[in-house]
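Friendly challenge for the regulars: who can give me the structure tokens for this chain first? No prize, just bragging rights.
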Amino acid sequence: MSFFTTNKTADATSEFQGSGGGSKYISTSGMFPVTVLAPFVNNGNDKATAIDLFVDYNEQQQVIYGNMSYTNKDGGANKIGHEIFNKLVILADVENVSDPVDMDLPIGKKGADKTVAVLEDLMDVEVIMQVRMEYGIWNNNITEKTVIKSFFRASDNASVAEILANEEGKEVVFGTQFATIAEGADYVEYKDGLDEEKVQAWIKAKRPKGTGTRGSATSATATKKPSFGKRK
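First reply, four minutes later:
Bragging rights claimed.
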């Protein structure tokens, strides 16, 4: 059974208009060359699901949690999440993504294996990932989200829209959209009265509760095993 089918229309593959620093961890806004080692499906509240990414960046493995929504709480498709995921699928040169299968990944505490529902068709895919950091306040705590905005082809910075236009015989210059977006890719979004000074003080204080806590995007306990986790 197919988990996902690509959509190659212009509306589904256009780019948002907007690079990270030298850390081996992705913790700033920017454009990051990564290997997607394994995407996996994660259940949230009610019928909500998200696709989390186990990635390698600068030879450092890490998980980008909870920001690429797949279904909403009512079970309906999340439009923005589907569009971003669709780009990853096209860059992987996959037409139909098979249902996830249970697999152990070293993403538990201290690198322990954890069983999650992995999308095997999209393992070991090299891309450039656009990330935006977002900070807000929820229940008197500062939240931190690592939000995936888009993906580009690793070999030449081509966007999915450019790749598809080229396949249609149109003249394109690969990497044009990437260059435009990269100019503002270090933008950080602050909400609820926060600013860079307040957030940096919170991070320096090791994200204390009450004045701030790490959000779901970086929580080590966010993953739950989906009920549809086996191939059908």
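The CA atoms of residues 74 and 221 lie 23 Å apart. The longest strand covers residues 30-43. Your move, everyone else.
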